[in-house]
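A brief tutorial aside. Many learners find it easier to grasp structure tokens once they have seen a single protein encoded end to end. The record that follows does exactly this for Family with sequence similarity 234 member A. Read the sequence first, then the structure, and try to relate runs of similar tokens to stretches of the chain.
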Amino acid sequence: MDNKDSEAEIHPLKTEDVKVQENLENSVERRIVSKQSSQLSRLSRWRTAAFFISLFLCLIIVFAFSFIIPCPERPVSERTWFRNYNHTVAYQFLAIQDVNKDKVQDVIFAFKASNGSSSFNRSCLDEGLPSPCAFVAAVSGTNGRALWERPAAEEVEWMECGIKQLGGAEALGCLVVGKPVSLTAVDGHTGEIQWRHSSDFGANYTVLTPVSVIPDVDSDGVQDLIIFIATGDKIKTFIHSGKNGKQIGSTGSLTVDGKPRYIRLKLVSSSYFLFYTENSIYAYSLKDLYNAATGMEINLPSLQQDPQWEKNIDSTTHRLSLLSFGDIRYLAKIPGQSQENILVVNSDMATLINAHNLQTLWTLNVSRVVSEPLLGYYKPNVLGIVLESEIGPNAKKVMVVESGSGTVQWNLKLNSIAESPGPATLPTADHRSTFLIWGEYQVPGNDTRSRAPLQKLYLFHPSYTNVLLELRNSTDQIIAFNALLFERSRHACYVLLRGPQPSEEPGMVSLMKRKLKEDVSRSRVIWLSQVAVDSEQYIRDRLYRMRFQSRE
């Protein structure tokens, strides 16, 4: 301290300079701080303004979506609806697709009458057809309201729906094969006739079903159609344009040794048609059929042949040499790991064939299968095959067979009549299936064989292997039956078409859709074994809450 005072006395001017310098620095610092404070204050105001503007915009958007912009209305589906047609007969066709684009599946069917329903008041004369004639009708899946009706043919031999680009339309279309011979393309959305052509299929013919859609071979940008007609020991092949219905090329002819049926098998890079009679299986590539119908060679990527298959096909008869079976009842396609395999069912055995090398994967003893094999899932994500086999007069056995090994996973014996509908499956959220089966379960010790079996619909789910739910008892003649999810992953329903068929006298035809849960809640619980693990109401409640999941 003394040193500082001494220095100040010795250098008084220097001390004054230091003080001035310090005051100047303090002033500059204050100005900088003041300027920074002003900038921060201004920035803070901008941030506040931006926050409130953003908040205001968010409120406007929320308000707009909540009150001004209407949300899409979800169709409210009725749990059960009926649609009745008087003085009518119905055909054994039931197609399901979204007709009115409301994301709910609708029902398309065919009936024969002098006039349509009162909803449209259409007559056969509107399409130049004699009365009575066959109508094609679409009914809303939500409430049973008629969406459209259209006179299509004098008689219906076959109807195929869900065809893309038919007639060049954007909506899925329906092809009606009529009698006398006619092909009619119907727009699935509006019911309008896209095109109609007469054909000469010859006398005493049978249409082999289903009609197949093939790649565009006439270069008009629309898929084409191939139709097989059986007459005696011949199969006639017709290729028609999907855009205008005109025949492409001439009529091809194939020779077989009996009454044929067919399936279409898609391999990795080729497509084959397998025609089977009681004793033989014939294989034709799509390229073979096109060449036979047009007399021309064509090289398209979609018309390739499989070298492995060509080695096993007799070049003269087109028989498959490695597949030799007798009394063939059904051929079915079974999805495999990389491609479809072939299930051959004859009178006493089911055999799964590897479609790649035509080698046997497994065999299963099964007698007189009475319905088309059906796919379902007994175990999670493990594909199974449902087989119904006759085991005696008015009796059948229902089996679920694992597709990979041929092991029987579950079986059930039922009394049944010959006209009983086939089974159906619905995919559930636990990656398994619900199985719907027709017949009459006979409680052990209660002999009912003295009378004709009743038509009862049962539900089975693998979570309860010893439980059946009896859903309904139908005394009417059932023409067609199907079960499906009417909306994606929800609204599980079944559809019944009941009434007289074309060979019978006209009467009342009834089309019904019913939600599965309605029957589950009122169902009768049947114990397949004497051990009851839960109460009956608990079983109903659990299966009522079961969720479904659409499979791609």
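Self-check: Residues 12-68 form the longest helix (57 residues). If you spotted this yourself, you are ready for the next section.
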